[in-house]
Amino acid sequence: MSSTGAAEEASARGIRRISTTPDWYEPYKISQAIKAGGLIHVSGQAGIDERGRTVSDDFLAQGRQAFANVERVLVEAGASLADVVKVGIFVTDVAANLRHVIALREEFLSEPYPADTLLEVSSLAQPEWRIEVEVTALAR
Predict the structure, then answer these.
(1) Rounded mean pLDDT, 98-106
(2) 34-60 as b/e, with b when 16 or more CB fall inside 10 Å?
(3) 71-77, long-range: CB < 8 A, 24+ apart
(4) What span, in angstroms and rounded, lies between the C-alpha atoms of 66 and 61?
(5) At what angle do helices 94-108 and 59-76 cross, to 10 degrees?
(6) How does DSSP classify residue 82?
(7) Which pLDDT belongs to residue 5?
(8) Average pLDDT of span 38-50
(9) Exposed/middle/buried for residue 117 (C-beta within 10 Å: 0-12, 13-18, 19+)
(10) What's the confidence (pLDDT) of residue 22?
(11) 78 CB neighbour count, 10 Å cutoff
Protein backbone atom coordinates (compact mmCIF):
# COMPACT_ATOMS: atom_id res chain seq x y z
CA MET A 1 0.00 0.00 0.00
CA SER A 2 1.30 3.47 -0.83
CA SER A 3 1.97 5.95 1.96
CA THR A 4 -0.95 8.05 0.68
CA GLY A 5 -3.23 5.01 0.80
CA ALA A 6 -2.07 4.12 4.30
CA ALA A 7 -2.68 7.70 5.47
CA GLU A 8 -6.18 7.67 3.99
CA GLU A 9 -6.93 4.34 5.70
CA ALA A 10 -5.66 5.67 9.05
CA SER A 11 -7.81 8.78 8.62
CA ALA A 12 -10.85 6.62 7.90
CA ARG A 13 -10.20 4.77 11.19
CA GLY A 14 -10.04 8.07 13.09
CA ILE A 15 -6.26 8.17 13.43
CA ARG A 16 -4.72 11.59 12.77
CA ARG A 17 -1.03 12.45 12.70
CA ILE A 18 -0.05 15.64 14.52
CA SER A 19 3.06 17.55 13.51
CA THR A 20 4.59 20.96 13.98
CA THR A 21 6.82 22.92 11.65
CA PRO A 22 9.61 22.12 11.50
CA ASP A 23 8.94 18.43 12.09
CA TRP A 24 12.34 17.05 13.17
CA TYR A 25 10.76 13.58 13.59
CA GLU A 26 9.85 13.12 9.93
CA PRO A 27 13.25 11.79 8.77
CA TYR A 28 12.99 9.05 11.41
CA LYS A 29 9.46 7.99 10.35
CA ILE A 30 8.03 8.94 13.76
CA SER A 31 4.88 10.99 14.36
CA GLN A 32 5.25 13.81 16.86
CA ALA A 33 1.82 12.76 18.08
CA ILE A 34 -1.16 10.64 17.11
CA LYS A 35 -4.73 11.67 17.86
CA ALA A 36 -7.07 8.68 18.07
CA GLY A 37 -9.88 7.33 20.18
CA GLY A 38 -10.33 10.55 22.15
CA LEU A 39 -6.65 10.65 23.14
CA ILE A 40 -3.49 12.37 21.99
CA HIS A 41 -0.31 10.31 22.30
CA VAL A 42 2.74 12.61 22.15
CA SER A 43 6.08 11.02 21.27
CA GLY A 44 9.03 11.63 23.56
CA GLN A 45 10.19 15.23 23.44
CA ALA A 46 13.72 16.22 24.39
CA GLY A 47 15.35 19.53 25.26
CA ILE A 48 15.87 20.64 21.67
CA ASP A 49 14.93 23.91 20.05
CA GLU A 50 13.11 24.45 16.74
CA ARG A 51 16.40 24.01 14.84
CA GLY A 52 16.89 20.59 16.42
CA ARG A 53 19.75 21.73 18.66
CA THR A 54 20.07 20.74 22.30
CA VAL A 55 19.36 23.88 24.34
CA SER A 56 21.89 23.32 27.12
CA ASP A 57 23.75 20.71 29.11
CA ASP A 58 21.73 21.81 32.16
CA PHE A 59 19.06 19.28 33.22
CA LEU A 60 16.42 21.88 34.13
CA ALA A 61 16.93 23.82 30.89
CA GLN A 62 16.54 20.62 28.88
CA GLY A 63 13.49 19.64 30.95
CA ARG A 64 11.80 23.00 30.48
CA GLN A 65 12.40 22.80 26.73
CA ALA A 66 11.11 19.21 26.61
CA PHE A 67 7.87 20.24 28.36
CA ALA A 68 7.60 23.31 26.09
CA ASN A 69 7.93 20.98 23.10
CA VAL A 70 5.22 18.71 24.51
CA GLU A 71 2.99 21.76 24.98
CA ARG A 72 3.67 22.92 21.42
CA VAL A 73 2.60 19.55 19.99
CA LEU A 74 -0.50 19.47 22.22
CA VAL A 75 -1.53 22.95 21.06
CA GLU A 76 -1.16 21.80 17.45
CA ALA A 77 -3.55 18.95 18.35
CA GLY A 78 -6.05 21.36 19.93
CA ALA A 79 -5.21 20.55 23.56
CA SER A 80 -3.02 21.81 26.39
CA LEU A 81 -0.97 20.56 29.31
CA ALA A 82 -4.16 20.73 31.41
CA ASP A 83 -5.49 17.83 29.30
CA VAL A 84 -2.56 15.51 30.15
CA VAL A 85 -3.58 12.31 31.96
CA LYS A 86 -0.33 10.31 31.76
CA VAL A 87 3.32 11.33 31.67
CA GLY A 88 6.43 9.26 30.96
CA ILE A 89 9.72 10.86 31.95
CA PHE A 90 13.00 9.26 30.95
CA VAL A 91 16.19 10.53 32.58
CA THR A 92 19.80 9.43 32.54
CA ASP A 93 20.32 9.96 36.30
CA VAL A 94 17.32 9.78 38.63
CA ALA A 95 19.31 10.18 41.85
CA ALA A 96 20.91 13.43 40.72
CA ASN A 97 17.74 14.89 39.20
CA LEU A 98 14.68 13.66 41.11
CA ARG A 99 14.21 17.06 42.78
CA HIS A 100 14.38 18.70 39.34
CA VAL A 101 11.81 16.27 37.93
CA ILE A 102 9.46 17.15 40.80
CA ALA A 103 10.05 20.87 40.15
CA LEU A 104 9.29 20.40 36.43
CA ARG A 105 6.07 18.52 37.25
CA GLU A 106 5.02 21.37 39.52
CA GLU A 107 5.97 24.03 36.96
CA PHE A 108 4.19 22.51 33.96
CA LEU A 109 1.43 20.30 35.37
CA SER A 110 -1.38 20.97 37.82
CA GLU A 111 -3.85 19.25 40.15
CA PRO A 112 -4.97 16.65 39.73
CA TYR A 113 -1.45 15.69 38.70
CA PRO A 114 -1.42 13.11 35.90
CA ALA A 115 -0.34 9.54 36.37
CA ASP A 116 3.41 9.38 35.84
CA THR A 117 6.20 6.95 35.18
CA LEU A 118 9.79 7.98 35.84
CA LEU A 119 12.45 5.76 34.32
CA GLU A 120 16.22 5.91 34.43
CA VAL A 121 17.79 4.94 31.12
CA SER A 122 21.42 4.40 30.18
CA SER A 123 21.14 6.88 27.31
CA LEU A 124 18.69 8.72 25.08
CA ALA A 125 18.72 9.20 21.30
CA GLN A 126 21.50 11.81 21.49
CA PRO A 127 24.39 11.48 23.96
CA GLU A 128 23.93 15.01 25.36
CA TRP A 129 20.23 14.53 26.16
CA ARG A 130 19.48 14.11 29.86
CA ILE A 131 15.64 14.01 29.82
CA GLU A 132 12.84 13.04 27.47
CA VAL A 133 9.11 13.50 28.14
CA GLU A 134 6.13 11.75 26.54
CA VAL A 135 2.47 12.26 27.40
CA THR A 136 -1.03 11.05 26.76
CA ALA A 137 -3.72 13.72 26.84
CA LEU A 138 -7.47 13.91 26.37
CA ALA A 139 -8.47 15.22 22.95
CA ARG A 140 -10.98 18.05 22.95
Answers:
(1) 98
(2) bbeeebbbbbbbbbbeeeeebbeeebb
(3) 71/108, 72/20, 73/18, 73/20, 73/32, 73/33, 73/42, 73/45, 74/33, 74/40, 74/42, 74/135, 74/137, 76/18, 76/19, 76/20, 76/32, 76/33, 77/18, 77/33, 77/35, 77/40, 77/137, 77/139
(4) 9
(5) 40
(6) G
(7) 56
(8) 96
(9) exposed
(10) 82
(11) 12
Helix or strand (DSSP H, E) at 124: none
Gap between the Cα atoms of 119 and 90, Å rounded: 5
Taking the model in full, what pTM does it have? 0.90
Q: For residue 127, is the peptide bond before it cis, meaning its omega torsion is within 30 degrees of 0?
A: no
pLDDT at 83 over 90: yes
**Nearest-angstrom CA–CA distance, 97 and 77:** 30
CA contacts within 13 A on the Cβ side of 59: 18
Q: Residue 47 corresponds to which amino acid?
A: G
Largest CA distance in the chain: 48
CA 71 to chain centroid: 8
Per-residue pLDDT tens digits for 113-123:
999 999 999 99
